[in-house]
Structures are given as structure tokens and as C-alpha cells.
Amino acid sequence: MLQTAGSLANLSPSDVVVRATEASELRTLENLYQLYAYDFSEMIELELDASGRFSPKEFGAYFLDDWRHPFLIFARGQLAGFALVHQKSRLSGDLGVADMAEFFVVRRYRRQGVGSSAAHELFRKFAGRWEVRQTPNNQAATAFWRRVIGQFTGRAFHEAEVSNEHWRGPVQSFDSSQTPG
Fold this sequence. Notes:
Layout: E1 16-20, H1 26-40, E2 68-75, E3 78-86, E4 97-105, H2 114-125, E5 129-133, H3 139-153, E6 158-163, E7 168-175
């Protein structure tokens, strides 16, 4: 049976909580990934397996590698998404750069400030240099990140179109320790 929640009217940043994921919540991450992959299957070639699921990402490493950080996002106490932060640049391998490896908010909580609040909290938590990447055909994500990073930094970020062996697509970079966010 589907659960229903109350109205999202008047949702404030204090209603959004980003919490480190415990190893016992691995299944929760895997389940949220199915929703994330479903959204992404519209833009990149992701196929269902014979059981009707998208092949799971290897989330177990997130509980083994010190540079990987999984988070669950909650809105008014309800599970609303996840974020995977790497303390390692995907572009250069630099351990001094935080990378938003994956970020997902379920549709019910989009355009309610949940994603912005969660991203800003993560930018503060990992104060320092950041890179946020989007696939080239995900214009909605690029618009979201430009807006969210712009709000956080007072528009003090750099954007580049990267096309090399490490990444292809837009990348915003900034220093979260040097911003008013």
C-alpha cells in the first residue's frame, strides 16, 4: 500500500535533513538508486535486467573507502533522496576536491527547496574546493546546479565544458569555504 504524506506547503530549509548513511541502510540506497536510474534511463542507455531492475551500483564500497560519503536526504522526516559525495576529483584524482558523484531527490520533493537545502548543507559540510558534473544531455540538472551553486556562492563559480577521458559534459567548480553560503 502506498504511503501518503501531508502537504509540502511552507517547506523550509530547516525541514530538510542530510544524514550520513549507515552500512545497515545499504538496501535503502540500492532502492533509491532504482528510482534514480529510472529517471536517468531517459537520457543514457540503462537497461533493465531480467528481473526488471536496473543493475545496481556498487554501494558497498561507500562503507569501505574513506573518500566516499553516502547520505540520505529527508524532508519533514520523510525519505526524500540521496547524495554520494567523493572527496576525490573525478577529473584530476585530487583528494582535496569534493565531487558530487550522484545526487537524487524523488519527484514529490522536487521544486520544493529540498535539493537546494541538501546541496547547500553538503557544500558546508565539505568546506573547500568542489566540482559538480552533469551529463551533457541533462539540461534540467545543469540548470538546477547553476542556480543552486549560484545561490550558495553569490555566483562566484566557474563553469567549463569538459571533454576528455575522465568526463564529458558541464562542470561547475567553486570553493565553498570562500562563499557566503
